[in-house]
Amino acid sequence: xxxxxxxxxxxxxxxxxxxxxxxxxxxxxxxxxxxxxxxxxxxxxxxxxxxxxxxxxxxxxxxxxxxxxxxxxxxxxxxxxxxxxxxxxxxxxxxxxxxxxxxxxxxxxxxxxxxxxxxxxxxxxxxxxxxxxxxxxxxxxxxxxxxxxxxxxxxxxxxxxxxx
Length: 164
Hints:
Layout: H1 3-6, E1 7-14, H2 33-49, E2 55-58, H3 62-74, E3 82-84, H4 93-101, E4 109-114, H5 118-125, E5 139-145, E6 157-162
Parallel strand pairs: 1-4, 2-3, 2-4
Antiparallel strand pairs: 1-5, 5-6
Helix pairs in contact: 2-3, 4-5
């Protein structure tokens, strides 16, 4: 297999700005109007840089699912195409490696929608850039050449960072 076909792209996306309505469990918190607009805006901007997205994986929390749905619309995917992973809800950084390591080799590009502090801590573990906090609806994109199962040990390349 040529190096070009082994290239993998990962987007780490923190959920868009969410509301804190009284009496609503954390997992069910909705996006604010600003959050909805930001998710659509960032999805469009990311699409201009990465025009093909093979897989969308999200925490089951409402705010991450809704952020992922904005990306799904932009990438002309159905909401049913979003894979929900309970372990991405308020995750430890190692969870991201576990999720990515299990991907099928046919997947070339993936977006993962999750929460702080885990998503920021994972981004910093990669060694491609140092960030204090991935902001709401912030996106960190990185790439590497190889197989998903080897992601922990392979060098990663910073692609871009974007935020509303």
